[in-house]
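A note from the maintainers: we've had questions about how concatenated examples are separated. There is no special marker in the raw files; a new sequence line simply starts the next protein. For clarity in this README we add a label.
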Amino acid sequence: MGKECLVIDCSPRAVSCAEIARRASEAGFERATLRELDFAPCDGCAACKSGCCPHEDDAARLWRRLREASVVLFVTPLY
């Protein structure tokens, strides 16, 4: 099995890091764009300590993808 590669586009703007992330996707990296994901704020309930966050958002899916990846590339703008 090959390496699981994940690109995380951290830019709040659609065009800021789009070219780099697009090229990485074309090279076979899986891509996650943070501005397109839905994250609920933590309410401090500590349920995560038992491994079960009560929020049904994209965070659990992103964590699963991060754990499965052998390589993670964070693409972030410099202002």
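[label: protein 2]
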Amino acid sequence: MEGIGQFRPPEDVRKVVEAARAAQQAQHAADDLKRQARAVFDPEEKEKLRQEVEDKEREAKKHSKKAHRLASGTWQGAA
């Protein structure tokens, strides 16, 4: 059984780090798009940026869940 302080194969650790990094990058992109949307006055452009923000935030959440699932271990993350 895996737990805190237990050995994890490097490949497993790499996957967790990659998923967490992808989540972070997607969230940074969403934050940048939010800043851009605040500076735009055209309603159509603002709506387009708002949709892009939602997409990036959805992507960040997906990667974050994946990282959490991978980090929680074989049995705990399977659910």
